[in-house]
Amino acid sequence: MVRGRARALGAELAFQVEGPRDAPVLLLLPGQANAHHWWDELRHDFTDAFRTVTFDYRGTGATRAHEEPWTTSSFAADAVAVLAAVGAHRAHVYGTSMGGRVAQMLAIEHPEVVDRLVLACTSPGGTHGHERSQALRRRLADPDPRIRRSVLLELMYTDDWTGPDSALLGDPDMTPGATLLHLRVSGRHDAWAGLPAITAPTLVLHGVDDELSPPQNAPLIGSRIHGSSVQVLPGRHGFFDEFREQVSPLVREHLSGGPASIG
Prior knowledge:
By secondary structure, the protein is of the alpha/beta class. The chain has helices spanning 72-85, 98-109, 134-140, 145-156, 176-187, 217-224, 239-242, 244-255, and strands at 2-8, 11-18, 25-29, 51-55, 64-65, 91-96, 114-120, 202-207, 229-233. The chain is globular and about 45 Å long.
């Protein structure tokens, strides 16, 4: 893996690149309060055919940035800076959870850099998006970190999950201030008006039993992006990890220009 830094407004963004140098570029965007480790195992589903690029959001990992108001638009601008630093003029984009919100803004505000797009377990935000319940918000705000972790595991995976320790449960080194800012990044996202402007071929994926970002968001997004394909699959918020043997080939097929279909 090649590591480097990209300069952006008020930040030095740590990025990571893996895969053949001459392969199509695939930008992988993680969820809220997570660094590139979100993709530690999953990226290997793509590195044979794509030059995968990740970066640590502001407030996470090895990125250094001022703690100031951040948005999905500013994170999308950071993604553009990272792609420029690795010499990529265009990229496929696969965004999950908050990464899907960032990916929406990237495709809306920087369409010239987005080739094909995958949006997983995400929301258009704003008044149109379906958000988690207040009861769930209270459970996630429990002051005991062991309880919060247990709740997250329950929300990410089904009861049949027997996989390794998950990398999807947050960056343990984030400051409380950065964690709050990330919560606001997701909470203030609203791409509804801009979604119809997306021209990149788009695949929208969601887990049918997702409580963190309810699955009703998938057809909502699909209805706003002309020509997009929507698939609701087994699983919860981490369906793309738990059911990766089904999901990753579906993503690869879409990114390679093939029909996005199951089985």
